[in-house]
Amino acid sequence: MCMPRKQKTDKPSKVDTLYRELKQKIISFELYPGSRVTEQVLAEMFGVSRTPIRQALQRLEIEGFLSIRPKQGCFIRELDVSELMEYYEARIAIELLIVESAVNAMNDKQIDQMMAAWQPEAHDQELSCGIDLGGKDEAFHVGLALASEKPVLAALLEKINHRIRVIRRLDLNSDNRSQRTYSEHFEILQLIKERDKGKAKLAMKRHIQRSREFAKTLTLTALARKKPMGKSTK
Predict the structure, then answer these.
(1) How far is it, in rounded angstroms, from Cα 180 to Cα 207?
(2) Model confidence, pTM
(3) FRET label pair with 150: which of 11, 180, 192, 197, CA 20 to 30 Å apart?
């Protein structure tokens, strides 16, 4: 549920605005995977100085969307579809172990708290409030590992998330996939609460497989359709 808005709110900073707009250009492939862009080009494009551009790019680098190379520029993360699919296979293996542990380790109160955050009927309202669904989705999977007392698996998931973040955000940009994410997360938690290990693992496996196939299709389509905005490194 959205929190009530205050009468007066601070406007987003210039860096925040640039960060969001640049991230959207990466997710939509306007800034093409593997392409090179410079602070100067982006500053001219947005009509700002290089300082806020640099700060926005640094935030995007931390999130894994690009890499900054001194005296060379910024390079949008490459997308190797076969490599990305391997990361999804690793996710499946790790998350099935997490679900198995969750059935035994999580109590009903913990499960109910997580279920409250993924009520399917809350989807439209939360998205209208501008929720960061990508961040919420990552927090669900890592949080499930931590609640299951599997910190090593949680750390492995975070490393994988760093590598596939662009493609996952592309996946969650679809209204259909974002709606299904709420329903599927809720179903997984319900099965964990029922202590049905087999069905819970199957639901998690199908959840990630759907995400993988949807993301693969979107990525291949986008790569074929979009033309590089920056200069290709190839």
Answers:
(1) 9
(2) 0.74
(3) 180
